[in-house]
């Protein structure tokens, strides 16, 4: 590039011009500093002394002071806004730290506190690992869940029984599931609840015949071709209906005989342990009991009786040497295959009534039973009913354990009847009670 002479400007001329500009700039700076000192912080004596140097000229000090006051006011406002901005930035920084903690914590927890579980996952076959392991969300971090990972809902004990878990997940992907109902239920009862999902199709019964239409289906035994009999001792419904006449212990031995004792359950009230459905429904305004749950409902007869009264009841049941869930569904009712130890799959304050006959009794550990009662309280709406139907226990347990437990949960007693069990020669008692969740 050319020098300054190429453009017609001698070097000395340019240097002189630069010095002049620097002097002017320095004078402007000094003048501004002097002005700020005079009108912002200088004492009044300084203004008096300054008049000697102004040759009697009248300076527009008042106007300058007004201007300075406006500038100072604006400066104070700016400082206040700056302080507010700093506070917002500090709050925003704290929120960023919280979000960063949410983003990092799942990984840190996995690294620090669950190393053994991660090693166990890595040791599982691929299908089992996919079923029980975490999955990264395809759209990234979710504000709703506070994580970028989704975890399958699988019982923690599934990883405790690794060999059983591997056996349960052994099948051809996309093929037919093994007929392993008994094994799967035993795994569930060990605490592996819910069971992992599987990518296989259960076998359909040969010559399958559909159920009868409602309301006929409520009291008709379904055809044998409606289920697969391999997991059960009985190989037909006729065998199940008649096994009540045979010796031996069976869970809900007479549940499948719909023309026997099942036909008369909950229709009459003896003023003692046996409550009728109609009496219970009449404790509430007509139509206010609409939906509910029957815990351990056997073959679903309680739900069938309520269905006849336009009340929808979901029945939990286990397939203990009998196709109870299939049987309930064939009657046009809704079954849930789950144990009494699982958290009830309902939101709080939703159900009108919860019923249980025999199942909620002293065979359940006290602490687990108390958790169950609190969970029932949770899902019942205010004013909802808990019908304890023939709860049984040892005589001393009634007042020492179970009455205080029910009081702790907070139910209000509407009806309460106790009586000795007459089928066994020991100090066992029954309790039937209708309890209400308080309105407030």
From TrEMBL:
InterPro entries: Methyltransf_11 (IPR013216), Prob_Methyltransferase (IPR053223), SAM-dependent_MTases_sf (IPR029063). Residues 293-387 form the Methyltransferase type domain. The chain crosses the membrane at residues 21-40. It holds the Pfam family Methyltransf_11. It comes from the Eukaryota. The keyword Iron does not apply. The keyword Hydrolase does not apply. Keywords: Membrane, Transmembrane, Transmembrane helix. SUPFAM superfamilies: S-adenosyl-L-methionine-dependent methyltransferases. One of its GO terms (molecular function) is S-adenosylmethionine-dependent methyltransferase activity. This is Methyltransferase type 11 domain-containing protein.
């Amino acid at each position: 590039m050319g020098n300054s002479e190429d453009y017609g400007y001698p070097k000395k001329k340019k240097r002189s011009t630069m010095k002049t500009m620097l002097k002017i700039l320095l004078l402007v700076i000094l003048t501004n500093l002097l002005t700020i000192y005079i009108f912002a912080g200088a004492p009044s004596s300084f203004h008096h002394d300054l008049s000697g140097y102004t040759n009697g000229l009248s300076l527009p000090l008042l106007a300058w002071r007004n201007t300075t006051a406006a500038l100072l006011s604006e400066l104070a406002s700016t400082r206040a806004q700056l302080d507010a901005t700093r506070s917002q930035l500090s709050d925003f920084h704290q929120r960023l730290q919280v979000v960063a903690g949410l983003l990092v914590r799942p990984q840190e927890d996995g690294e620090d506190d669950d190393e053994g579980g991660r090693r166990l996952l890595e040791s599982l076959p691929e299908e089992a690992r996919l079923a029980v392991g975490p999955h990264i969300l395809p759209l990234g971090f979710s504000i709703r869940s506070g994580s970028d990972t989704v975890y399958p809902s699988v019982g923690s004990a599934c990883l405790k029984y690794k060999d059983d878990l591997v056996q349960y997940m052994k099948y051809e992907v996309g093929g037919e599931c093994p007929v392993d109902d008994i094994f799967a239920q035993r795994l569930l009862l060990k605490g592996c609840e819910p069971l992992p999902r599987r990518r296989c199709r259960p076998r359909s019964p040969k010559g399958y015949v559909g159920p009868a239409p409602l309301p006929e289906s409520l009291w008709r035994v379904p055809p044998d071709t409606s289920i697969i009999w391999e997991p059960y001792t009985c190989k037909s419904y006729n065998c199940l209906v008649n096994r009540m006449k045979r010796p031996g212990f069976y869970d809900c031995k007479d549940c499948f005989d719909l023309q026997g004792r099942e036909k008369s359950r909950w229709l009459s009230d003896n003023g003692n342990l046996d409550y009728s459905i109609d009496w219970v429904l009449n404790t509430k305004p007509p139509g206010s009991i609409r939906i509910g749950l029957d815990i351990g409902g056997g073959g679903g007869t309680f739900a069938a009786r309520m269905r006849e009264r336009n009340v929808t009841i979901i029945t939990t049941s286990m397939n203990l040497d009998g196709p109870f869930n299939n049987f309930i569904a064939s009657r046009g009712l809704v079954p849930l295959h789950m144990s009494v130890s699982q958290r009830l799959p309902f939101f709080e304050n939703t159900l009108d009534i919860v019923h249980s006959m025999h199942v909620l009794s002293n065979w359940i550990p006290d602490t687990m039973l108390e958790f169950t009662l609190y969970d029932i309280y949770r899902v019942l709406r205010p004013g909802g009913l808990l019908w304890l139907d023939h709860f049984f226990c040892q005589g001393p347990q009634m007042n020492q354990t179970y009455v205080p437990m029910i009081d702790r949960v907070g139910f209000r007693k509407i009806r309460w009847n106790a009586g000795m069990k007459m089928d066994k020669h020991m100090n066992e008692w029954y309790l039937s009670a209708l309890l209400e969740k308080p309105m407030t």
